[in-house]
Batch of 3 targets.
Target 1
Amino acid sequence: MTQDAKPILYVKSGCPWCTEAISYFNNQGVELEIRNVTKTHEYMNAMVAVSGQTKAPTFEYGEFVVADFSVDEFLAELNAFPEVRQKLGLNDDEN
């Protein structure tokens, strides 16, 4: 996967953290490929392959993967990767 590809957000139906994550990324103008692992077995297999676990939401962008997160946890992880933050178009002061 190249860094120019769309970030992937793996979600589950009825997951409040997934809904929160989708809302956050939409509000920030981040274009995502949303993959519902509840509906597609291949998506679940892909999520497990990149994250090593079965919990959602899981965010994948190149080598940057954050599994089983709240938006606050995602932002905390993103702080360690300023180049990813920049490529996603997320400013430091946006929450």
Note: The longest helix spans residues 16-28.
Target 2
Amino acid sequence: MDFGYSEEDEAFRREFRTWLEQNAPRDRTPVEGMWEESEQDWQRKLAWWRKLASGGWTCVDWPKEYGGRGLSLLQTIIYHQELQRVNCPLPFIGSGPNLLGPTLMHWGTAEQKARFLPKIVSGEEIWCQGYSEPNAGSDLASLQTRAIEEGDYFRITGQKIWTSQAQYADWAFVLCRTDPEAPKHRGISYILVDMKTPGITVRPLVQMNGARGFNEVFFDDVKVPRRNLVGEKNQGWQVAITTLMYERNIGGGGSPLLGLIDELARLARRVQRNGRPAWEDSDVRQKIAEFKCEGEALRYTNLRQLTRRLKGLAPGPEGSIMKLCASELNLRIQSFAMELLGPYSQLEYRSPLAPDEGRWSFRMLGARAGTIAAGSNQIQHNIIGERVLGLPKG
């Protein structure tokens, strides 16, 4: 494809850049992705999302009919470039914008789209994902949370775990078993649940780096209207797969790791190794160049995925490839940062003596989670081998 920017694209860049210059927050201290440490971090992210929404700058690649701007591929890339330029990337405020919203566009009723999509765009309603269970993680189809139909309602009982932002969520999209006699990939339904419904309990799962994004959620005879069913009863696995493919896609037309690699290069120029900057060591430069090449390859892979989305197609295999390769690359970047920092890598996050406020150690402690979340990397290898390359099952 042609990556040259037209005059229309450049006019769009100027429009958004002007808006950012007038509205970008003054406090641009990074919040580490979805792993906010405190209530203050969450409120900063939510405030920035709602500020963007006030100008019509959220969910920009959604069709206009659903509250987006219907941006072209190149304009979507420009949008993320400009956010990155001012160090104010699009904040993660739950699973509504990237997961549920696109899934509802494919599978939702007209009533569901009208009810839920506008409040996802505005940030008025926060969503979490009720997929994994204590005994059903990567083998998601083994889930046991039950939804029993009674007239115009379902009654849900069970437990979900590793539920990101559940403590802030207004709604959840929950996979439930509605036919326990059916084969495990059948008999599953995809149901939207108001988190304020009686019978729901949320408990935090604090990680070793202090982040509080994960939770476990308990459903005790929770009554949910049948109109909140997405797709057909007992056919929710098809809907769930659509969501999973969006989850495994890293949006934005770029690779968020490219900025991280640039940050690593700056760190290498500051830290000392044998009495001189680590950057002067050819082995260090070679390793960072290797990371940069991999990040660029991921960026082009992601452009293929974004192209499919802008054409109105369901996500393809690029999502699994991006999830697998990006999470493993991130883990290697963080490990190398620990080598560069040496003894300083042991200082806690936001310690006054830690380089970069200890962000590298914070990220390192959370990096392994990326190889497990959204389907473990072992599962991604199987998906790519069997469904993309057509290899026989082992």
Note: The first strand starts at residue 127 and ends at 130.
Target 3
Amino acid sequence: MKQPLVGIVGPCAAGKSTLIRNLSGRGYRLKHIAQEHSYVPDMWQRLTRPEALIFLDVSFEESNRRRPMPWREADYLEQQRRLRHAREHADFYLLTDGLTPEEVAAQVAAFLENFASHP
């Protein structure tokens, strides 16, 4: 059975790339969607048309701890605004603050196993 195409969205430093790396080789069809950089609210749908959408979130403080970036809280809030449509349509939402990459991968994998078994 072919796995569903799963889109991964979220603000910078939420763990999207790490999640995809951690789940690679397990048969999942995962696509990082850079919605946080788009002014088009539904770009995630237009480009990818995923069968499931996962939203990884992170607080401003945690994002700066993970990856010090030259940005202000206003920049973070703008990313959150750009991501609103995707967040509202996400099949699975996970705040990654306080979680290890392995814990994030385990929670997402559990969701995907359940999602794939209930089409």
Note: Residues 40 and 82 are 8 Å apart (CA to CA).
